[in-house]
Amino acid sequence: MWGQGNWPFWRDFLVAAQIKWVKVNDDGGGSAKGLVARLANLGIMPVVRFYRQPSYPGYLTARETDYARALYERYGVVYFETRNEPDLNLEWGGGRPANWLQQVITYYLDDRDKLAKVGVYALFPAFGPGGEGNPFELITRRGRLDVFDRMVVALHNYCLGRPLAYPNDDIADHGQPLSYAEWLAAGDGRPSLALNVVWDRWTHTRVSEARRQLANPKLTIYDDWTCFRAFERMDKLVRDACGHSVAMMMTEGGYNVLQRAGTSGGDDPRYPKPTPQRASELTMAMFNYHLPDYMLALMPWIVGVAKFGVQSPGFEHQGPWFTNIYDRDWGLKGELPLVQMLKTTPGRVRANGPVPSALEKFYQAQEFEDRRIDERLKYLEPMVLVEPYQGQESYWKLVEVQFKEKGNGYVYVKVEDADGTELEGVSFAAYTKANQARVASTKGKADQYWGNLPLFNAPLGTYRIGIHNQPSDYLSGVGNGSEAGFQAVDYFLTFRKVERTVEAMLNVPQWRQIILNYYAKEGEAYNNAEAAGVGIKKVTPDNQGPAPSGLWRLVGVRQLTTAESGSNQYVYVDLVDQNGQPVRGAAPLIAWTWEGRRSNEPASPIRPDKPVHEAAANIGLGAGQKISVWIQDSNTLSDSATNLQAAPSRPAGGGDTGPRSFYVLFQRQSVSPQPPVPESGVEIFKKYRISFVFNEEKMTIEDVTITKL
What we know:
The chain is of the alpha/beta class and about 700 residues long.
């Protein structure tokens, strides 16, 4: 169970809380594949544990390695926790053997080598809180130093009520006494709660005495690592074995409500058991801790149990973030205060990437802001995809797709005109891979205008659905099947007529290529708008100041024809990279200004976010405006197009009376360093006196003397 019944709740939480890493349990054959796909779709890195009870003994089989390969190739998952806490007897079937540590290394090396062939990491198994020995030395003794060049170590560094600085905090080092106010505050200001729950019936004077007796200023993390900073001790073990650090991550750990060092009350009486409020505050402090570079991520235990649909009372009492077990005693409403803390605290990026290409492609696919597409289609195999229409004329846009699992094996289609009026008798088709069409039509009011076609028990990937013999979007990969396997399903598609506006009649891909070809051949910008007064202001890199990182060269300005402009007057601005491919996204920005606006103060820059078959952005030309356009891109220089203006209302001589629009194309180019300009002969003679002895008989120069003035 992974929360598929209320996935929108978990999706919204993960996004709002800015979570970037999530550990999931999987049976090794795909029990959590749906969750892994959805995490990848959000740009979250899943860490997959093969949950087997017990973890030992036994080797990985093709079932696990084939599954790891599938997750890697489809979603970009690269981290797999194949074993769990081998120092604990309960993880061994038949009991932990005497040579258990040797066996741990044998199984790890086998896991590691099998998954390395797939291209992913088998995490070195996390030991229970405390741990023992140096297992990494056993790897070096087996002559496997190569393993350390591609190692990730899992940690279960539970904090157990101790502060993040432990064992070097004032309590552990110096026995800092506890005041009554502090004793009471640890129980959220409630005396009964403080005495009976948080302090296990210890008074503040008794706790202070225990602190005094147990104080040890010589204690180091290498002496007691049952705490958050256990990664420091583990890093030392690794460096002792191979001479350098390796990557690590917390795959369990952190602060749990009412849990502190030891497994029964009173094992370490110096620190209180964390209340929901205190556990939340400590967890936020942990997330803001300045981690060493080798610590990749913190994935504390545990976000949810019953909220996921898992009925396990034992886990429910291990401090999940979403639970109702604390509601009555602490006045909560199904979640720890931590949840709102995460949502309201800005995230901090420690490092970016590298992001596996499969993960990046998967979560970027099928992102439509103006369509209502059932996101479950993205997780089917093969994926059901929207194919947007790429032409320029009016067409039928697929505006909504709903998906029904356990349906009747039909596709239902509704068609609307541009105003949203439902239409009867519009033909649509399901095309096979051989382009054979099964055709039906939308029905009338009695059927709520839905037409239908049977899928004929065909599996996923069989059909493309669109409006028959008309320009249309398509839904491809349609067929029977769900994430749970093959079964009859239903699709509900709504198409709406899009009447192409005049601004979309410019064939941008065609003119983009024409201008690029002209610039490549002629070495100069295409400009057929000079008669309209449009100029090109070029920049030239020089050797003064910091070297620019690149240059946005204006490679073309084209005045649109009357048919292309229609009744509109726009400047269409387009951007391509060095290879001629459209540039879209967060950077760069399109900057522009017009004469008379606050002494030429630039207007708000425009983000280039239009589809690639259109110009990156368009700017309306107002009467009397003279616009200049350039590209704003960090330390990158930019040409500019100047004097872009609408047609005058009363042109001189009666010409140029129609609307006027322009297409402006910028290309990002590299900057070549400019060679220094050599000094002229006159400048040289101003700095030096040159004397020579001339032999008239031999007609040669015998000697030359250069004297600096």
